[in-house]
Design brief:
By secondary structure, the protein is of the alpha/beta class. The chain has 3 domains: about 5-135 and about 150-270, 2-Layer Sandwich (Beta-Lactamase); about 280-440, Reverse transcriptase/Diguanylate cyclase domain (Alpha-Beta Plaits); about 515-705, Alpha-Beta Barrel (TIM Barrel). Helix content is about 50%, strand content about 20%. It has 23 helices and 24 strands. An 8-stranded mixed beta barrel has the order 15-16-18-19-20-21-22-23, surrounded by 5 helices. Helix 11 links the parallel strand 13 and strand 14 (about 435-440). Helix 9 (about 320-340) crosses helix 10 (about 370-385). It is rod-shaped. It starts with a helix and ends in a 17-residue tail after the last helix. Bound molecules: ligand C2E and calcium ion (2 copies). One calcium ion binds near residues 486, 547, 580 and 610.
Length: about 725
């Protein structure tokens, strides 16, 4: 059943995170993780470059110191005087030249790492080679003479060179270049040291080009080691980044889930779990909004329809709660369909709302209602939609609704009052036959207030002596003699005045108060009869007729023992008691009633079927149940003299009743003509205003004493009127 599944979706788990949100979560988590990774990388990078710097500096400074030591050692081997004597290129390789360069050439041969050893002097603005440790010729085969000897230095002056030669008025000092220099001879660095004469004056400078490949290798190794050392750090950073990513991603997802769950819970709190419709809370919010809109002039009127399903409890009781639930779901689908509501929470685009208030109560809010009558049109449409049978658990079930309508266009409306009034109208719809709609009016409200006042007042009415008993004679048609008196309740309400029993007895029945009132009436009536029998042995009625309500019949054995007690206390025999029950009430619980009636008969109590002609008036009931007499209802008697059909009906009934061995009685006899007809048809007993109205106990004997048969002395008949 796809429709039901759709409804139940709304009570299920929160919906899954949309793809877009998931992608956004991932991107945000990744950015955060990368930012953390970057910051840590920078920190680690700074530390590493510091390490790198200090490591290379140490290696370089050690190497430079070594170069300076070599240059210093070489400088002391040069004879400054011999050196000063060599200045011209043609001296190259001359005996004095060779003598001067010899120590340097020896030193180069002894230390294989030395690539080149030479001396330099300042010559005005430029610098000149003087001695050269290389042997003449092109040993390395690059087409360039290895031996440069006395000549002008072609390369641009290096800082280290100038530092050693003396610079800007500073004396020369031992120093070394800072980084390796690569050419056809290889890679080398140079150490310089001044050549000083005996007086300590600078004669020139010695340069030692030392193979720097070892140094470069050491630097490389240091870099490699550092990089290898960096690997764990890099790994840590990657791990950290990944961890941060996962934590952040989970955090975002969790946060979204919590927010989603909160939203879901908030929606669920305003939605009916069973049907998925709006619940009372949401409906009241929308109703308040509708009232506000009306007040602000944004709409002219709105309508509220309050629905209650007829005999829903019966479905729950007979088919079970699951079937009841399913019926409610099917009802929700129909209501939604009839109002063209597509939204799951029972709201449509124009702001109409369908809600379940709980139990079998539903409410509908119609906004922008054009006319008052439109609300009834909507109600009629709903009733029509609800009319077809429902398929429930294999069987067909019929369930009609009663609808109360309130149209709001008043700025004094408030939501609670609107709902209360719609409820009142719904109640009225139930009273007027169910499966219909009723528009609320103020009179209804008054009726309801009165009803509630009656119910409240009933609780103390006996104690306050507001309720009393009246007695109406029942006479034998043939003789005109009173044979019984019907006991009728009278209530003088301090606020409402006389309240007829037809009004307060149904209320007493619904609230269960009738049991207490009935007991009081039974004792009062029996006590009264006992008193009459003592004081007026001749005139007193033979029996007292007491109406027994449905709720009293339902007491069963307790009713029996109560009657027994009263009879014992008053000393009356059972045959003095005549109980009036209606066919309708007997048929509420036929078998229990049958047993009860048999027991009452065994006690001698007589039984009258009351109100005959108003219900189904079945022959079966008359035949099977132990009634002594049948009382034809006043509504039938009223038509007696005007309608021949009614006369025929009564004739048939009376014949039937006599044939079944029961006595017949008629109530509501108001005039002599009615009595005459009844007498001609063979009716045995009669009761009505024609003889006497119901009167207080102390007037009964007097009211009934002069009663005579119709064909007797007319003037002797007393009517209480
Ligand atoms: P009911 O049992 O049908 O009682 C007869 C009603 O007909 C009484 O109305 C009575 O006053 C009225 N009546 C009698 N003669 C005439 C007549 O000539 N013309 C007209 N128009 N009416 C006549 P009442 O007293 O208003 O009682 C109404 C109903 O309240 C009774 O109908 C009975 O069902 C119920 N009732 C009254 N007293 C009691 C009681 O003590 N216990 C129970 N359970 N029900 C009671
Ligand atoms: Ca009666
Ligand atoms: Ca009656």
């Amino acid at each position: 059943m796809p429709i039901l599944r759709r409804i139940s979706d709304h009570t299920g788990p929160p919906p899954a995170v949309p793809v877009d949100d998931a992608r956004r979560d991932r991107r945000r988590a990744l950015l955060d993780a990368l930012a953390v990774g970057l910051v840590v990388s920078i920190a680690v990078g700074a530390a590493v470059s510091g390490l790198w710097h200090s490591a290379t500096t140490t290696v370089r400074e050690n190497y430079r110191e070594y170069l300076v030591q070599l240059a210093t050692a070489a400088a002391v081997q040069v004879d400054p005087v011999a050196h000063a004597a060599i200045r011209r290129p043609e001296q190259d390789n001359s005996p004095e030249y060779r003598a001067a360069v010899e120590p340097l050439r020896r030193m180069r041969a002894a230390i294989p790492k030395i690539r080149y050893l030479y001396t330099l002097v300042r010559d005005g603005a430029s610098v000149r080679f003087v001695l050269d440790s290389a042997d003449p010729g092109d040993r390395d085969g690059d087409g360039v003479e290895d031996h440069s000897a006395v000549g002008e230095l072609s390369v641009s002056p290096q800082t280290a060179k100038l530092e050693a030669l003396g610079w800007n008025g500073q004396p020369g000092r031992p120093t070394a270049t800072h980084r390796p220099y690569t050419d056809a001879w290889g890679t080398f660095m140079t150490g310089y040291a001044p050549i000083l004469d005996a007086q300590g004056r600078q004669e020139g400078v010695v340069g030692v080009d030392l193979d720097a490949s070892g140094y470069v290798a050491r630097l490389e190794a240091a870099r490699r080691n550092l990089l290898v050392g960096l690997m764990p750090a890099a790994l840590m950073i990657v791990l950290l980044t990944v961890t941060v990513y996962r934590l952040r991603h989970k955090g975002f997802a969790d946060a979204r889930e919590i927010a989603g769950a909160a939203l879901h819970a908030q929606l669920a709190a305003r939605r009916d779990r069973l049907t998925g419709l709006a619940n009372r809370t949401l409906f009241m919010e929308q109703l308040n909004a509708a009232i506000a809109r009306t007040r602000a002039g944004a709409q002219e009127r709105f309508g509220v329809l309050f629905l209650d399903f007829d005999h829903f409890k019966l479905i729950n009781d007979t088919l079970g709660h699951d079937a009841g639930d399913e019926l409610l779901q099917q009802i929700a689908v129909r209501l939604r369909g009839a109002l063209r509501v597509t939204d799951a929470s029972g709201e449509d685009a124009s702001g109409n709302v369908v809600a379940r208030f709980g139990g079998d109560e539903f409410a509908v809010l119609i906004n922008d209602l054009r006319t008052d009558a439109d609300s009834e049109r909507v109600a009629a449409r709903l009733l029509q939609a609800l009319e077809p049978v429902y398929a429930l658990g294999g069987g067909d079930v019929h369930s009609s609704a009663s609808i109360g309508i309130v149209v709001g266009h008043d700025d004094r409306d408030n939501a609670e009052a609107v709902i209360r009034n719609a409820d009142v109208a719904m109640y009225e719809a139930k009273r007027s036959g169910r499966a219909c709609h009723v528009v609320f009016d103020e009179a209804m409200h008054k009726r309801l207030t009165r009803r509630m006042g009656i119910e409240r007042g009933l609780r103390n009415a006996i104690g306050k002596r507001e309720i009393s008993l009246a007695y109406q004679p029942i006479v034998a048609v043939e003789t005109g003699r009173m044979v019984s008196a019907e006991v009728l309740l009278r209530w003088e309400h301090p606020e409402f005045g006389d309240i007829p029993p037809a009004e307060f007895i149904p209320i007493a029945e619904e609230s269960g108060l009738i049991v207490q009132i009935g007991e009081w009436a039974l004792l009062g009536a029996c006590t009264q009869l006992a008193e009459w029998r003592r004081e007026w042995p001749e005139e007193a009625p033979v029996t007292i007729s007491i109406n027994v309500s449905r709720a009293e019949l339902a007491l069963g054995g307790r009713l029996l023992s109560r009657i027994n007690t009263v009879l014992r206390r008053t000393g009356l025999p059972g045959r003095c008691l005549q109980l009036e029950v209606t066919e309708r009430d007997v048929m509420r619980d036929p078998s229990a009633c049958y047993a009860l009636m048999q027991q009452l008969r065994a006690m001698g109590v007589r039984l009258t079927m009351d109100d005959f002609g108003t219900g189904t008036s079945s022959l079966a009931c008359l035949r099977e149940y132990p009634f002594d007499s049948v009382k034809i209802d006043r509504s039938i008697v009223r038509g007696l003299t005007r309608n021949t059909d009614v006369m025929a009906l009564i004739h048939a009934t009376l014949t039937l009743v006599e044939n079944l061995g029961m006595a017949s009685a008629a109530e509501g006899v108001e005039d002599a003509a009615q009595l005459a007809v009844l007498q001609s048809l063979g009716c045995r007993y009669a009761q009505g205003y024609y003889f006497s109205r119901p009167v207080p106990a102390d007037q009964l004997i007097r009211a009934s004493r002069p009663l005579h048969a119709v064909d007797g002395d007319q003037s002797a008949i007393i009517s209480a009127a």
